[in-house]
Amino acid sequence: MTRNLFWALLALLISSSIASDCTQKQFKSGIVCVCDLSKCDEIPNIDLTSGQAATFTTSNSGARLHRDIVYATNSDPITSLHLTIDSSTKYQTIQGFGSTFSDASGANLKSLPDRLADTVIRQYFSDSGLNLQYARVPIASNDFSSRVYTYNDIPNDYSMTHFSLQKEDYQWKIPYMQMAQKYNHNLKFFAVPWSAPGWLKTTNSTQGYGSLLGSNQGTYHKAYVTYLLKFFEEYNKNGIQFWGLSTQNEPTSGGDKKNKVQSMLFTAESQRDFIKFDLGPALKLSSVGKDLKVLIMDDNRGNLPKWADTVLKDTETASYVAGIGVHSYQDSESDKHLQQTHDNHPNVFIFGTEASEGYKAKETSVDYGSWDRAEDYVSDILDDLNNWVAGWTERNLILDAQGGPSWVSDFTDAPIIAFPALAQFYKQPMFYAIAHFSHFLKPGAVRIDHSLNVPNYDIQRSAFLNPDGSKVVVLQNKNMLAPYNVVVKDSQQSSDHYQVHLGPRSIVTLYIQN
Amino acid sequence: MGQAALYTSSNAGARLHRDLVYATDAEPFGTLHLTIDSSKKYQTIQGFGSTFSDASGANLRSLPDKLADTVLRQYFSEGGLNLQFGRVPIASTDFSSRVYSYNDVAEDYMMQNFNLTKEDFQWKIPYIQIAKKYNQNLKLFGAPWSAPGWMKTTKQMSGPGALNGKAGDNYHTAYATYFVKFLEEYSKSGISFWGLSTQNQPTQGSDKKNKIQSTLFTAETQRDFIKSDLGPALKASNVGKDVKVLIMDDNRGNLPKWADTVLKDKDAAGFVSGIGVHSYQDSETDKHLDETNKNHPNFFILGTEASEGGGAKDPSVDYGSWDRAEDTVSDILDDLNNWVVGWTERNLILDAQGGPSWVSDFADAPIIAFPALAQFYKQPMFYAIAHFSHFIKPGAVRIDHSLNVIELEVESSAFLNPDGSKVIIMVNKASLVATEHTVVVQDAADNRNHYQFKLPHRSITTLYIQTSQF
């Protein structure tokens, strides 16, 4: 009886996956989904009754969040792989996923017809789409701007009387941030500077390396804090409030003389002191700043736990800090970096603040249809979430076919690529990789315990409990040829077994309704 | 003595950098001596061109109007590339965003349902009109990639297949009507055509693996189609009677055989003016071109398509590629040195992906559009074309030229403009700095004047010698 049901389910899975989940376009590396003014694929509704489950499958062969119902069975179906989840053992709260309102993203949105730009924003920020909860907002220019600028290039204007937002803010950032808020009223913005105005730096240059001039509580440091506060005041005038502030993007790259990108050096010590003596107190005194969550580091995991230990050991500094930002570019490093950080500082959240693919010198910046890049994303996110990280943020919403614009040619891939000439955009496999998490993990979800009965290096996984009691298991099969069948069981409800089929090179989210 | 100027473009960054060159009586030092002979004339150069593909139009339209105008001015005004020719696809190609013809109503042999499409009205006609504003003498030539699907043996416009039936039957007559209707409809928008190519790459129409729009003709069936259907239909129509018909429009490997087959037939030959040639087999010997000219000296050979970056393993758009500029110069020199009268680029402007192309047949182009920043890039290829098209005036003739030593890394050609000025174009393909040449140019018909200039490694130079009073 059970065996027949299994084969019937398998046949159903195979036959139903033949229909296309989106408007496909095939490239050497894989398939993209094409969206235009008349259509764009949407994620199927979850639509389940209590106890019912569904799998959503994305694969190299072309499935895109393809929904299939999965029925719980009492008996233990035949398969060698068992994933036991334990919803009574809880780890960290998942705060949510995000992307970045870079100048490049705004420029690309603006190059599309308004309706299509709105579709892009809806695909990311509505709860029927990626349901992003967080948005990173650069303070002045970065590598993904078309020029180098700050909000005050008048030297020695310490009181920041000449502070002004730029056309980039008014044309390329604010309108789209407002559109995103329309789709998610709870959207949390966090701002981050790549560099202070050049005249505040040891190098006298906004682009490239260098650190803040002077010392704690001195003129330069105070001026910079005024600059940061003015950013929030000016955005506030445009009706936009912020949830957080990251002290500095990749502070360690500010020491690299070969670095051409806007950057500023902080060591863990100088960041600690900057927060303790200048930034922290000033934020607390300002109406736009007092509730801002301050993030430290915003750099690669190799710096942990040392960076966090140094900054947070000082209790006064720690009182100003809410979280630690981490980038994904050293994710090949051991998870222990994250594990130890959590152990040392359990009350400070770790949040993924930047991730991207295609940035390396020898790589193609935009690799249409790349399954490898989607796979890397799933790996990275799983690795983070399995090791205490509370959220994950993509580096750009939407780039052009070159992987820009970028004034310094720092081109990269993105989940969405714009083709203004045809009023079209492509959704890369990476877009769906993020969806497998962000669409199903509701804000406030917790990661729960999970274990596979035998070691298997092809299958990566994690499991979560949503606030409404539904459970989410995200699995990835990295094997290029072999499929797997996995039986998922909650030790808290051990009668229910859910059989999940994982094709080769596929990602599956199992959603179990409460 | 006639004053001269040298225009240099180089991998190191020079872009048509102008330096004056003074003639000297005495023979200066040089590592290379180029002797030109303006009394020995070869073929007349008709001019250079590009293509008003749907992709080009889509990209122009994605830019602000003022910027799209700049692109066209850069190409078509005298101050820019001074292009004389515009290739205009008849309905869709690989560089369209969809497959369409002008009449998809099956069996409509009278072409009553013939209609231009939104691509013509939004992406082609407006930009052709802007180009004509910059060059009132712009010569347009149409070329079909495929007949409507219902006329083909495969019933599909995309992919292979020949016209149903044979010359003289209802399909062939209908197709000839289709061409005439194309000319009539464009005429209603104030656009008249100088020429018409019978079929783009007719040999491709037999390739079963080919997904792109194509229609198969052999030299024989092309000959018959022109003789029985197209030729007479054009001659009988107002819009078509003066249109110059081009045959082949395919790679040089097909020559001279293709031309011999079609033009041996006097009736067919009576309708034909020229032979179109593509650049994708330019590694083949020049003899293909040479023999063709020898066999048919009264028919011009025109380069009708060339592009870079189309290979499966190449990046489609290779920003700043000097190699591609060098290839372009090599190709043009090889053509012009072997009787070809002009050369046409495959697309005016593409996007960063090398498209749009419904079939992902991406390629590079001399200009790449970046609508998000309201910008465009001019590739080294743009300047490669400029070294010829800006300086060789319509009606120029190629003249004799020879180097005193065999130098494989240096290629050259020489021309005499109608106003008496002379143009010498050289490319140095050597990559080591030490391989810079000092070139001395002297006209055997006027051997007092010597012009000396530097030809650095990885550079292209055009020496322009103004007409002398004496």
In short:
By secondary structure, chain A is an alpha/beta fold. Chain A contains eleven helices and 21 strands. Chain A has two domains: 114 residues, Golgi alpha-mannosidase II (Immunoglobulin-like); 348 residues, Glycosidases (TIM Barrel, Alpha-Beta Barrel).
User: What distance lies between the first and last C-alpha atoms of chain B, to the nearest angstrom?
Assistant: 7 Å
Helix content of chain B: 25-40%
- What would the average pLDDT of chain A be, to the nearest integer? 95
Query: Under CATH, the topology of the largest domain in chain A is which?
Result: TIM Barrel
**Radius of gyration of chain B, CA atoms, in whole angstroms:** 22 Å
Structural class of chain A: alpha/beta
Task: Provide a count of the helices of chain B.
Answer: 10
Strand content of chain B: 25-35%
Number of domains of chain B: 2
Main β-sheet, spatial strand arrangement of chain A? 4-3-21-18-17-16-5-19-20
Question: What are its keywords?
Answer:
heterodimer, A: 514 residues, alpha/beta, Immunoglobulin-like, TIM Barrel, 2 domains, B: 470 residues, nine-stranded mixed sheet, globular
Description:
The complex is a heterodimer of chains A (514) and B (470). Chain A is α/β, with parallel strands linked by helices. Chain A has helices spanning 2-16, 103-110, 114-125, 167-183, 219-237, 268-285, 306-313, 315-318, 336-344, 371-385, 429-438; strands at residues 24-26, 31-36, 53-59, 66-70, 81-94, 96-100, 134-139, 188-193, 244-246, 293-300, 321-327, 349-354, 391-393, 416-419, 424-427, 445-452, 459-465, 471-477, 484-490, 497-502, 506-512. Chain A folds into 2 domains: 47-92 and 446-513, Immunoglobulin-like (Sandwich); 96-443, TIM Barrel, CATH 3.20.20.80. Chain A has 11 helices and 21 strands. In chain A, a hairpin with a 4-residue loop joins strand 1 and strand 2 (31-36). The radius of gyration of chain A is 23 Å and the shape is globular. Chain B has 470 residues and is an alpha/beta fold. Chain B has 10 helices and 19 strands. Chain B has a 9-stranded mixed sheet, with helices on one face. Chain B has an 8-stranded parallel sheet with strand order 10-9-8-7-6-5-4-11. In chain B, a hairpin with a 6-residue loop joins strand 14 and strand 15 (410-416). The chains are: A alpha/beta (514), B alpha/beta (470). The A-B interface holds A 25-27, 104, 107-108, 110-111, 146, 364, 366, 368, 400-402, 404-405, 418-422 and B 55, 58-59, 61-62, 97, 315, 317, 319, 351-353, 355-356, 360, 369-373. Chain B: Belongs to the glycosyl hydrolase 30 family. Chain B: One of its GO terms (biological process) is regulation of TOR signaling. Chain B: Pathway: Sphingolipid metabolism; Lipid metabolism; sphingolipid metabolism. Chain B: It holds the Pfam family Glyco_hydro_30C.
